[in-house]
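quick one: zinc ion bound model?
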Amino acid sequence: MLIAAAVLLAVGVLWFTLNVPPEAGPVSAEPPSPARRLEERKAAIYESLRDLVFEFRTGKLSEPDYRATREELQRELAAVNAELERLVGKASAAAPEASAPVPAVSAMPEGVVCPGCGAHFSRPMKFCGECGRPLSGETS
Ligand SMILES: [Zn+2]
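yep, here:
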């Protein structure tokens, strides 16, 4: 009788654990938004591209294969990016930094470059800190 009860209890516990849907556990994470899914896909594509380059460099992949796969991945990446832009455009307030275009580093919007030694200074200076040459320093 005791054994029967124990078995019944065990079966009951087993039944209970098996019937708990995976989402019904200790859920604290927010539901995956479409943008998040796209970001994840983008990351996966980037990873594939990295792997691809690596395999090509190590000689595991022939160049035509490499090019074809890369083009395919880049097409997919473009599609994901377009979709993401569409989503982010709708809710642009969500993460402006993430979607903002990165300014070109070579532009050097301000600062001076020493004509003598090529040292770059972020602020206009009268004299070069590297070689002491006078700098015009004016940023119009
Ligand atoms: Zn200098």
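The two ends are 96 Å apart (CA to CA).
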